[in-house]
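Escalated from tier 1: iron/sulfur cluster holo job.
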Amino acid sequence: MDIITYNIEGTMYVNLTNRCSNACTFCERTRVSNIGGYDLWLEKEPTAIDIISDLKSKDMDGINALVFCGWGEPTYRLDVIIEVATFARSIGLATRVNTNGQGSLIAGRDISHDLATCIDSVSISLNYNNAYDYQRVCISEYGERAFYELIDFATRCHNNNIDVTLSVVDIIGEEQVNDCRKIADSIGVSFRVRPEIK
Ligand code: SF4
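Tier 2 regenerated the structure:
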């Protein structure tokens, strides 16, 4: 049976899709079979009704945030994000999307305004300080353009009062990390260095 919501350390996550516009060489789903004991490959993408019903059936005691983050890129399911995040806010949860930052490319339009109606924060994987390395390792179907678009997406979300964090994984080395921090600083958003999941 598909796992469409899952609880890790007091945060409830929503697993929306297997689809992704990247094929990152470091992608966790190519290296590990589960996250926190949850096998997140979906047989079928859940509807907003499926997810809201699932959340209503769960013990939400102690849960204060709902995060859209699974095996794929959640912004492929923008309509579902909006419906579920609106419900989450109505029951007092903070809302976050963990994303590769290519949602506007995927939708073919700027989605930052849509997200601003129901999402408190976005965490965007920056991964590298330049488009060439980003594309070399993340292999976006949009090519090097994806790197520039993700920075534009971060900027637009920030301008729409969404709390934005750009993140990198620590394996890229100190020099890259510092350059990436400068990119985050230059657009006025937060920055986080994540440990590699082994
Ligand atoms: S963006 Fe995330 S889900 Fe997509 S391939 Fe890269 S690491 Fe995997």
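The beta strands are 5-8, 11-14, 65-68, 94-99, 121-125, 163-169, 190-194.
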